[in-house]
Amino acid sequence: MEKFEHEYKADQIQVLEGLEAVRKRPGMYIGSVSVRGLHHLVYEIVDNSVDEALAGYCKNINVTIEKGNVIRVEDDGRGIPVDIHPKTKISAAETVYTVLHAGGKFGGDSGYKVSGGLHGVGSSVVNALSEWTEVTIKRDGGIFQMKFERGKTVQPLKKIGDSNETGTTVRFFADGTIFETLNYEYEVLENRFREMAFLTKGLKITIKDEREEPVKEAEFCFEGGLVSFVEYLNKNKEKLHEKPIYIDKKGEFPIEIALQYTSAYTDNILSFVNNINTIEGGTHLEGFKRALTKVFNDYAKSHNILKEKDANLLGEDIREGITAVISVKVKEPQFEGQTKTKLGNSEVTGLVQNAMVEELSTFLEENPAVAKSILDKCISASRAREAARKARELVRRKNALEGSTLPGKLADCSEKDASLCEVYIVEGDSAGGSAKQGRDRKFQAILPLWGKMLNVEKARADKIYGNDKLNPVILAIGAGIGSDFDVTKIRYGKVIIMADADVDGSHIRTLLLTFFFRYMRPLVENGNVYLAQPPLYKLARKGMKDVYCYTDEQLEKNLNELGRDGMTIQRYKGLGEMNPEQLWETTMNPATRTLVQVTMSDAIKADEIFTILMGDEIGPRRDFIEKNAKFVKNLDI
Length: 637
Known about the structure:
Layout (H helix, E strand, L loop, with lengths): L19 H5 L2 H4 L4 H20 L5 E7 L3 E6 L16 H7 L23 H7 L1 E10 L2 E8 L2 E11 L4 E8 L11 H14 L4 E6 L6 E5 L5 H8 L11 E5 L5 E7 L6 E6 L2 E2 L5 H20 L12 H5 L2 E7 L18 H20 L1 H35 L19 E6 L1 H10 L5 E6 L11 H4 L6 H7 L16 E5 L4 H17 L1 H5 L3 E4 L4 E5 L2 E6 L2 H11 L5 E4 L8 H9 L6 E3 L5 H12 L3 H11 L9
Parallel strand pairs: 1-7, 11-13, 14-15, 14-16, 16-17
Antiparallel strand pairs: 1-2, 2-6, 3-4, 3-6, 4-5, 7-8, 9-10, 10-13, 11-12, 17-21, 18-19, 18-20
Helix pairs in contact: 3-5, 3-6, 8-10, 12-18
């Protein structure tokens, strides 16, 4: 290995002072510098206000996106302490905003019994990654203010007035030299704050967007807490029992759980620790699952509902159709990393399990009709699982006899490194043929599909295996489905849906996305799913190179610039209208194509949309269509 010739002495060791480390490596503290990281700044400040609510001192939080993408967060909590910190010799408020790992959240005699912040870096990180920050505090009979620029104090804390109120107001403007964008997405913030309000019973959170007229505004306050949360999640679903089951266990580790069964074939379980969404679960989720399996099996056997031929119900049988929210409060939570996506406290498993077993067992004994309706569904799910296993084995045997585990219509690529490979799932044999001829065979695979596929929102897994439309997709991706899906085994780093730019094409995209969301969700969460963007128009004129337009706005712009005289406008309705060279140039060439990555910043909203559009309930779908019909631009009649 070639050596890099240079002296390696003490003066080569770089020491980053103050908040320089945060500005040098922002991704270590907020995950990324994309729009997701930008929103994380807002969450960090709001989390501090929510911690005041959890401590019982804050009832109102107001979040405003001011003109110019300035964020203002105002609460009526106690206000950050303004007295001098004994170690830093500056005010406690300035310490919180300029020193990493400084805060009232470290256990012992701290300012909070439980809190979302674990590492004490939230306020200081926001300060470090902002062009400027202004903090105004009301407490101790006064109004105090301090100002910063890129993490450095430009105005130490000083008293600017008198007040008998308490609270903290933070205004900041994110640093454009660090973030890829400074444009906040109102809907993303709105969904996050709705979730926070559900989790903190009685807390009122408002969000206002002043950037455009009319001003957008929403207010969230839910006295029902988690019960209201579950009712919101299930508002478009057919319920097996009218009211959610609610468990509330006080003590050193407060535990709240709300659950309700629906006629759906997938589960929707959300878990939180100190109001932080643990998207990877952890010990609290493990305790919930164990208890759920034990309680329903015990009840079924003791009441002779579970016959001997059905054997024990598995956890996946009992979780089919469940919507649940689990919220625990832990004084010293152990998370995996600053992003807090998985709880590691081992003692929480037993605590959640015991609370669930005790409370849920009592509920089922007192509500036998509800217990029977849920268990009927569980037993039906168990039989479907067995049918799915047989179908899966049949598919495997069939493929083994055929000598290949890949679908016959798949034109595979030669590259073996999955991260460099991509598969185009193409609507129709005609377009599939053009794509096969136009592709780069080294890294691009083509899988043609034809006709409408199964709507998995209305089908169980046993109907999916062996389905002539979906089975080729399952085999091509090669990572299984449902609980067996392993994202590390995918055969392609990019799974690209390429469908016609018409109503039928939109339907096929929606059906495939529903399938990926319900049965290969890690594929979406991992950012492996993309939508190809074929052109809508081709402009041609003698002596001019063809020009492709991907939007109506682009068409109008090009016509204005190139002139309309002698111009031929071709409206593409199908991929099959393009020859292999055109398809490569417009839609498949990495240097010139446009791909839209399918992301899932809000799983709750995604679940709601798929339920509305693809589920059994007609009313919500009709309402959605009536509400959004005015936004339709291209409708084939």
